[in-house]
Every structure is written in C-alpha cells, then in structure tokens.
Amino acid sequence: MQKQQTILITGASSGIGRQIAKTLAQKGHKVFAGIRKKSDKIELEKLNKNIIGVYIDVTKSSSIDKAFWFVIKNTDKLDVLINNAGIALAGPIEGLSTETIKEQFEVNTFAPLKVLHKFLPLLHGGKIINMSSMASSGIFPYVSPYCASKRALDIMFNSFALENKDNIKVISIKPAVIKTPIWNKSVKRARELFEEQNETLKEKYIKDLLLMEKNALESNNTGLDVSKVALTVLKAVEKSNPKPSYCVGIKSNFAMTLQMLPQGLLNKLIKIKLCRL
Ligand SMILES: NC(=O)c1ccc[n+]([C@@H]2O[C@H](COP(=O)([O-])OP(=O)(O)OC[C@H]3O[C@@H](n4cnc5c(N)ncnc54)[C@H](OP(=O)(O)O)[C@@H]3O)[C@@H](O)[C@H]2O)c1
C-alpha cells in the first residue's frame, strides 16, 4: 500500500481532471479537486470520501488566494500539484485577435504559473504534474494558440525543474486525442470567433474551418478514454523517480518524434495531410 499523498488538481469538474481525481482518491490519496460550481463540488465529493472540492478559478488571483487558505486549513503540506485546467481555442492566425490568443495563454500557461507561485511554500520536495498535450509539438495548424500555450507551459516549467532549490520534480503529461467535453466546447467557441470575422476572411477559410470542425468532433468517437491519462498520472504520482515527460497514446509519441524533422520537410508533410482531410 502506497503512503497517502496530498494532491491539488485544478479543473476537476469534467473530462481528464475528474477521472484523475477519482483514480487518485480510489487509491487512497487525499485529493483537493478544483471546481468552479457548487454542483460540481457536490458531485465530486459524492464520488469518494478522499475528494474535497475546492473553488478555484485559475485565471483569478483572488480565487487562487482563497483556494490556498482553504487548503492550508486542511493540510500543511502538498505532495503533488496537478495543473490540469485548460481550454482550447482554434482558428486561422489571420483572424485571431491578440486578445483571444492572450485568453488562451491566461488559462493554459499563466494560470499554472500563478498557482505555482502561490502554492510553492507547501510543495517542498514534492511534484508538479502539468497537463500538457501532444499539441506541445507545435505541428497542428489552426490550433496554434493552443499548441503555443502548451509548448510555453512545458518550457517554463522545465526551466523551473532545473532551477528550483527545493527538490521539486516537474512532470509533463502529453496526451494524444482524448474523449472529453473539450472538443465540443472548442468547436462552439471557434464557430463564435469565426462568425465575428469579415466576409473576405470567412470565404478564404470556411472550407478549412469545416474540415477542422469535423476532425475535432470525430474526436468524440475516436479519442482515447480518460482512464489512460489518469493511470499515467497515477504512475507519476506514486513513482519516486518519475520521468520528466510522458506521452499518452501512440499518436503523441508520433507527434513528438515528427517535430524533430527539419521544418521544411515537416511543413510539406503537414500540407499533404491537410489536403487529404
Ligand atoms: N481532451 C484531449 O484530447 C486533451 C489532450 C491533451 C491535453 N488535454 C488537456 O487536458 C486538460 C483537461 O482537458 P479536458 O480534455 O479534460 O477538457 P474538459 O473536460 O473541458 O475540462 C477542462 C477543465 O478545465 C476547467 N477550467 C477551464 N477554465 C478554467 C478556469 N479559468 N479556472 C478553473 N478551471 C477551469 C474546466 O472547469 P469548468 O467545468 O468549470 O469550465 C474543466 O474542469 C486541459 O489542460 C487540456 O488542454 C486534453
């Protein structure tokens, strides 16, 4: 039996985060599960007595502060922080405002840094597990803000792993496509953003956008099960010496290998793939 660990995970209301909270709690770990709605707190706490819902909107410093005070009322040490909350914004770069791109980075990149800064005093000798993505390879056009936000997350936290003097380990989890609500949310938001564009841009990109939509919605059927990610996270939590990076799904290994090709060759391959969609 593993020693009980105390874990904080953000974005536990649905998808991957919910499954991670459930899996870790079933293994006897104490899980502070980040949520934003009362109904999600009730539902999560019903899943297992080791789960304690904690309100945290990762983009708001005041909310992170409140979550911190809540957590330290219940524990004086965190063994693991899991930065899981995330969103996926999509569209052609030409039509994406810098505000939209900033929004993507606020949730996926800056928020984990804010959470790290706040919870660092509790993490001495512990672990940070970041929910990155195979998108960190940067090889997926039309979701470039998402790809860039995950790559930046990986770079920042890898630096932190090399620099920190508190023996905190950093682990990046890079799932391939997983069946979760993120895909429907992303398509809905991409449509809204596209509707705001002028007619010339719409005409230029409508065909590509519809293909991307179709691809994204197919993920609801073809994606891997959330349990694959949760079991990888469990391994990273329980191993004393986890790897700094885990791909989940063969397509993720493939993406991380492809990104090492010379850019010219890689772009040719991506264009061939786009033409075949
Ligand atoms: N699904 C995939 O194919 C895939 C692949 C690779 C990586 N990932 C990554 O896995 C993570 C989880 O995504 P998912 O697929 O499980 O999607 P999901 O079901 O949509 O879950 C996203 C979670 O993030 C939370 N969240 C969003 N914005 C937040 C904010 N400002 N503050 C606090 N929580 C916030 C959501 O909470 P609310 O319910 O309150 O909005 C929800 O709990 C993300 O980082 C995503 O990039 C997903």
Outline of the structure:
The chain is an alpha/beta fold and 277 residues long. It is 55% helix and 13% strand.
Helices and strands in order, then pairings?
Blueprint: E1 6-9, H1 15-26, E2 30-35, H2 38-47, E3 51-55, H3 61-74, E4 80-83, H4 98-119, E5 127-131, H5 144-163, E6 169-175, H6 182-195, H7 199-222, H8 226-238, E7 245-248, H9 250-258, H10 263-276
Parallel strand pairs: 1-2, 1-4, 2-3, 4-5, 5-6, 6-7
Helix pairs in contact: 1-8, 3-4, 4-5, 6-7
The structure holds NADP nicotinamide-adenine-dinucleotide phosphate.
Written description of the protein model:
The protein has 277 residues and is an alpha/beta fold. It has one domain: 3-Layer(aba) Sandwich (Rossmann fold). It is 55% helix and 13% strand. It has ten helices and seven strands. Strands 3-2-1-4-5-6-7 form a seven-stranded parallel sheet, sandwiched between helices. Helix 2 links the parallel strand 2 and strand 3. Helix 1 (15-26) packs across helix 8 (226-238), helix 3 (61-74) packs parallel to helix 4 and helix 6 runs antiparallel to helix 7. The longest helix has 24 residues, at 199-222. The termini are far apart. The model has no long low-confidence stretch (mean pLDDT 96).
| CATH class category label | Alpha Beta
Portion in beta strands = 5-15%
Looking at the structure, the CATH topology is: Rossmann fold
Distance between the termini: 48 Å
Strand/helix succession: EHEHEHEHEHEHHHEHH
Q: Strand order within the widest sheet? A: 3-2-1-4-5-6-7
Number of strands: 7
Work out the radius of gyration.
19 Å
Question: What number of domains?
Answer: 1
> How would you classify the helix and strand content by structural class?
alpha/beta
Please work out how many helical segments DSSP would assign: 10
